[in-house]
Amino acid sequence: MKKKGEMKKVIKVKDKVNDGQDDDPWWWLVQEGIKPSFLCISLFALLVRVAVGLHPYSGAGTPPKFGDYEAQRHWMEITLNLPPKDWYRNSSVNDLSYWGLDYPPLTAYQSYVHGVFLKTFDPDSVALFTSRGYESYLGKLLMRWTVLSSDVLIFFPAVLYFVLVYRSMRFGMGQNSDAAWHIAMILLNPCLILIDHGHFQYNCISLGLTIAAIAAALSQKDLVASVLYCLALNHKQMSAYFAPAFFGYLLGKCLRKKNPLLEVTKLGLMVIGTFAVVWWPYLQSKDAVLAVLSRLAPFERGIYEDYVANFWCTSSVLVKWKKLYSTQSLRIFSLAATLITCLPSMVQQILAPSSKGFLYALLNSSFSFYLFSFQVHEKSILLPLLPLTLLALEESRLILWLTHFGMFSMFPLLHRDKLVLAYMALYALFILVYFAPCGPGGRCHGTKTLDNTQKTKRGVDFITSITFHPLVMGFLGLCSLILHVIYLTMHPPNKYPFLFEAVIMLICFSQFVLFTFYFNSKQWMLSKHLTSKDKQKKLI
User: Fold this and answer.
1) C-alpha to C-alpha distance for 376 and 396, rounded to whole angstroms
2) Where are the transmembrane segments (predicted)?
3) Are residues 326 and 512 in contact, defined by beta-carbon separation less than 8 angstroms?
4) 235 sits in which H/E element
5) Of 414, 416, 409, 334, nearest in space to 378 by CA
6) Is the dihedral of CA 464, 469, 471, 474 positive or negative?
7) Percent of the chain with pLDDT over 70
């Protein structure tokens, strides 16, 4: 009788807790499990992408070279009408000065496949020579569909794979609501949506392959991870931003196994085999390989373009790097700075590989490349933001803060593309999703992250305590708002035509540098909390 009475009390308590929540769509969604949640969020994310695709794109109606949209279309034209040996070679039928291919072969193959799709429905859009600057309604619709299909076929499945693996980890999610919120943070990343579906690119392919490689590595499928990461690297060379993290983590795991040399050899063979398959049309001659490689390293463009929030561009306000040093010297400087700043993170993973440490290493190495490597573009902030979204549950406060500055750093670019309305709408949507009542952002804004930090790292905690002081947050938020308004409503002085871009760059750079120190410190602190049992296993 006593047990029955207790059971009734429990049922009544549950009824009270659930009272009113059955009518909440978010509550219903998260109670249904991961896969139904993923399906619903994916459909919504797809609709958001379609809506952004209705806005203008890079270089719309601006001859003679238009913009990134025309570059992607032109690559389809070239790959469809010329043999592979001529794709990267300057000739009378392939003028490399007009949007010549400057990405690895996998991008060229992707362009060929998409070119076949366009030719099926609109042959004029990929006709050799005559299709330059082609901007018909059907052509634009088909181009937008190629990006959407890339998202659905590669990026979305990779995110599901990662979330399922991440959930199974001991540092992962304990509630369906956390998983649903995490999925939303990744799929509704406003920066990626604006660049791929607004500006027009295919970052979803290389980033999707990278996410799949990360998930494979976390689930102990190291050979599969190597293949997937090599494919990402062969789609966009900027995927090298993650190379130190993959190298450190996989090497560290190999060194802890019974036969390290055999494990390293297996990984090496998978890497060589993947590159050989992708590069096969160009391995017939040394000149063909060099022709492709010369297109992948555009040193002639200078150490930076436009106003990007990295070290070289920001410091050029005081030090005129391009005037003081030759391109060769700047290449050495940037290489040295990048290696020095990413080395600590890589070494930590070689010495103490761990799943969580690997995710932080991805974040740290990508920030090192963004801040110090040669020829960084505003869009490159997508690479550090990827591992940050994967760590959304660990860094629930910082994902909102750094996503804000990531978007802000691209605002001048998106303004030129006439994507201000989409920019504001996606930013508002991201904030609404972030503060969803059942997610970490809505329940307790960043408490988990700061509590864990305070227990172990007084030095690291200093960074968050200063940055998230109400006065500092209010000041930086107000500066961002004012600069947005000024940029939209005022013209800079004639003497300083890029004054507004420079100020935006300085503010964003300060935040990126600050949190690069924070994330590196946090990664190294992970080693100190491994128990003796963990030191035997080390890997989850």
Assistant:
1) 27
2) 145-167, 179-195, 202-218, 267-283, 333-351, 357-377, 420-439, 460-486, 498-519
3) no
4) helix 222-235
5) 409
6) positive
7) 84
Residue range 228-248: average pLDDT? Answer: 97
117: Cα separation from own chain's centroid: 27
Close Cβ partners of 22 (under 8 Å, ≥ 6 residues apart): 28
Q: Three-state SS for 304?
A: strand
Q: Is the pLDDT of residue 532 over 80?
A: no
Torsion of CA 143, 149, 155, 161, to 10 degrees: 180
| pLDDT, tens digit, 9 for 90 and up, residues 493-517 | 999 889 999 999 999 999 999 999 9
Structure tokens at 55: 């806005």
Encoded tokens for 294: 């010369």
The tokens for 401 are 């803060």
What letter would DSSP give residue 282?
Answer: G
Contact (CB, 8 A) for 403 and 191: yes
- Which pLDDT score is estimated for 5? 53
Q: What is the pLDDT of residues 137-155, one digit of tens each?
A: 999 999 999 999 999 999 9
How many helices (H) does the chain have, and how many strands (E)?
28, 0
Q: What is the DSSP string of 339-370?
A: HHHHHHHHHHHHHS--HHHHHHHHHHHHHHHH
- The closest alpha carbon to 211, from 76, 71, 390, 364, belongs to 390
Cα(209)–Cα(231) distance, integer angstroms = 7
pLDDT at residue 7 greater than cutoff 70:
no
Sequence-distant (≥ 6) Cβ neighbours of residue 426 within 8 angstroms: 48, 52, 188, 190, 193, 194
User: Which candidate, 151, 128, 155, 108, places its Cα nearest to that of 296?
Assistant: 108
Token reading at 161:
């794979």
Confidence check: pLDDT of 463 > 80: no
Burial class (CB in 10 A: 0-12, 13-18, 19+), 308: buried
Three-state secondary structure string covering 85-143: HHCCCCECCECCCCCCCCCCHHHHHHHHHHHHHHHHHCHHHHCCCCCCCCCCHHHHHHH
Amino acid found at 521: S
Report residue 212 as tokens: 């799949």
Q: Could you read off the pLDDT of 321-364 as tens digits, one per residue?
A: 989 999 899 999 999 999 999 999 999 999 999 999 999 999 99
Check: CB of residue 239 under 8 Å from CB of residue 210: yes
Is residue 438 over pLDDT 80?
A: no
Place of tokens 């005129």: 320
Tens-place pLDDT, residues 262-288: 999 999 999 999 999 999 999 989 999
Angle of the 260-278 helix axis to the 243-255 helix axis, nearest 10 = 150
